[in-house]
């Protein structure tokens, strides 16, 4: 056989293999939809949700997993399909999150794992959700909520509240949701409902309400009750202001997408969400606090943190000026697209609220830079016990990113070519850049990338799910 014939055969073999994988992905999508809609069961692969609407995402995720070390065992889509088939045959499983990647990599017996479910038969109800504000975070939350397959359970986005505006406002709001300069076009159907002043997104009607103050709204007039309001305006940050939401009719709880003051708990999901209890007002802290606290948590647990400094290289935000103009804050009046701007950050102090053992041990500062999204936190910490080397420290962090406990919060990259735009759309709250890790005696410097929009919004929804009383059995635990 000539070299040309060999290459043609190689090409055909690869094509046949990929076509086979596509067919397996299509079959898998049907099973995933059935499990989600009929049993409230969601299947993940090392913490990442398998998109039941995208063949490309499923195949790309398996390819990405194959390039990572998960116990030196590759996860083939055929393995995932075989396991999901078995899961779908068990119709008694309800309200469960099953990580097939962890099960396959650790050679876990599926039947034994399924028998360990401690809330079999439980069904989570639906919780009405209202987004108060429709800026960057509000629109990302809308995309995340309405990109999921439709279901009668879980978080149900029912309304968006914005300030009164001129005619044509609704069309502009919908256009901003549909088209995004950073995250691209919304992959779904969006249409306007002028008669009812709302939008229809992927078959779901979302009311748009115009109001000057939270307390003046009667949500029950729109068929909304016992709602969770996610306030992403940042206007109110204390109990007096946020309490206005609870004065309106039809609201049960409030979640703030910014650091809060007073006695309101600042919560980083995965770290201190066990403190929420029955609180009616909770803060999801900041994007930076969410990005760095999980990594600081594992470093402190393993090595002990004596003290340290956090420097954030943060993308510019909407509160800065495009060109030099008046701003009440120092330096932020200077052009965001032309300058690096030194500013303050409360993230280091906020870590102490989520992780009390680090209270008072960290300082912090921020530099706003001319990029629109994805930021970088530099953790410079002094450790009680030093790792043997930077490689040993990276190996520990890699294992944490692969663990079932932290895989949804912490990711890991050792690419020598990674740059900020590579992490646009990343749902992990923080991605450790192993190539940048420095260790000198007991001083460790760890670099953590984060999509300050999508990564943070994913954490917000995890916390919202908990506040709504929605709970799932986890396999593996």
Can you walk me through this structure?
The chain has 3 domains: 113 residues, no CATH class; 133 residues, 3-Layer(aba) Sandwich (Rossmann fold); 167 residues, Dihydrodipicolinate Reductase, domain 2 (2-Layer Sandwich), CATH 3.30.360. It has 12 helices and 21 strands. It has a 9-stranded mixed sheet, sandwiched between helices. Strands 13, 14, 15, 16, 17, 18, 19 and 20 form an 8-stranded mixed sheet that branches. Helix 1 crosses helix 2. It is globular. The termini are far apart.
CATH architectural grouping of the largest domain = 2-Layer Sandwich
Strand residue percentage: 15-25%
Superfamily at the CATH H level of the largest domain?
Answer: Dihydrodipicolinate Reductase, domain 2
Largest sheet: 9 strands, mixed
What overall geometry do the principal axes of the alpha carbons give? globular
Supply database-style keywords:
477 residues, alpha/beta, Rossmann fold, Dihydrodipicolinate Reductase, domain 2, nine-stranded mixed β-sheet, 12 helices, 21 strands, 23% strand
Q: How do the strands and helices of this protein lay out in sequence?
A:
Layout: H1 3-39, E1 41-45, E2 48-49, H2 55-66, H3 77-89, E3 96-99, H4 100-105, H5 110-115, E4 126-132, H6 136-147, E5 154-162, H7 169-178, E6 190-193, E7 198-201, E8 204-210, E9 227-231, H8 239-247, E10 251-256, E11 265-266, E12 281-283, H9 287-303, E13 305-315, E14 341-343, H10 347-354, E15 362-369, E16 375-383, H11 390-402, E17 410-413, E18 430-433, E19 438-440, E20 443-450, H12 454-467, E21 473-475
């Amino acid at each position: 056989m000539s070299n040309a014939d060999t290459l043609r055969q190689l090409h055909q073999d690869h094509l046949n293999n990929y076509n086979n994988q596509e067919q397996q992905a299509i079959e898998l999508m049907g099973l995933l939809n059935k499990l989600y809609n009929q049993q409230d069961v969601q299947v993940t692969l090392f913490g990442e949700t398998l998109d039941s609407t995208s063949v490309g995402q499923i195949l790309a995720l398996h390819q990405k997993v194959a390039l990572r070390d998960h116990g030196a065992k590759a996860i083939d889509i055929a393995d995932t399909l075989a396991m999901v088939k078995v899961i779908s045959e068990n119709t008694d499983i309800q309200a469960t999150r099953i990580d097939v990647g962890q099960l396959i990599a650790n050679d876990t017996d599926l039947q034994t794992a399924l028998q360990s479910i401690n809330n079999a038969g439980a069904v989570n109800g639906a919780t009405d959700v209202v987004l108060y504000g429709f800026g960057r975070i509000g629109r990302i939350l809308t995309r995340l909520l309405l990109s999921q397959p439709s279901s009668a359970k879980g978080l149900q986005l029912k309304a968006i509240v914005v300030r009164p505006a001129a005619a044509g406002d609704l069309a502009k709001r919908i256009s901003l949701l549909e088209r995004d300069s950073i995250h691209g076009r919304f992959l779904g159907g969006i249409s306007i409902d002028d008669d009812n002043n709302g939008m229809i997104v992927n078959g779901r009607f979302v009311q748009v309400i115009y109001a000057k103050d939270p307390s003046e709204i009667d949500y029950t007039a729109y068929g909304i009750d016992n709602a969770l309001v996610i306030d992403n305006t940042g206007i109110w940050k204390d109990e007096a202001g946020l309490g206005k939401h609870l004065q309106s009719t039809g609201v049960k709880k409030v979640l703030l997408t910014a650091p809060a003051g007073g006695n309101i708990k600042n919560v980083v999901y995965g770290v201190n969400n066990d403190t929420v209890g029955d609180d009616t007002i909770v803060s999801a802290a900041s994007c930076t606090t969410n990005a760095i606290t999980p990594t600081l948590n594992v470093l402190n647990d393993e090595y002990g943190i004596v003290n340290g400094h956090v420097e954030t290289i943060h993308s510019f935000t909407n509160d800065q000026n495009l060109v030099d103009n008046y701003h009440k804050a120092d330096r932020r009046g200077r052009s965001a697209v032309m300058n690096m701007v030194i500013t303050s950050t409360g993230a280091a102090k906020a870590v102490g609220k989520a992780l009390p053992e680090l209270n008072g041990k960290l300082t912090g500062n921020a530099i706003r830079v001319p990029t629109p999204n994805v930021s970088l936190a530099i953790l410079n910490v002094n450790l009680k016990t030093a790792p043997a080397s930077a490689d040993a420290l990276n190996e520990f962090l890699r294992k944490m990113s692969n663990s079932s406990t932290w895989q949804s919060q912490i990711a890991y990259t050792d690419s020598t070519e990674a740059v900020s735009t590579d992490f646009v759309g990343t749902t992990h709250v923080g991605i450790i850049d192993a190539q940048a890790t420095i260790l000198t005696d007991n001083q460790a410097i760890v670099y953590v990338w984060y999509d300050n929009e999508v990564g943070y919004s994913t954490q917000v929804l995890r916390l919202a799910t908990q506040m709504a009383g929605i709970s799932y059995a986890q396999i593996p635990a």
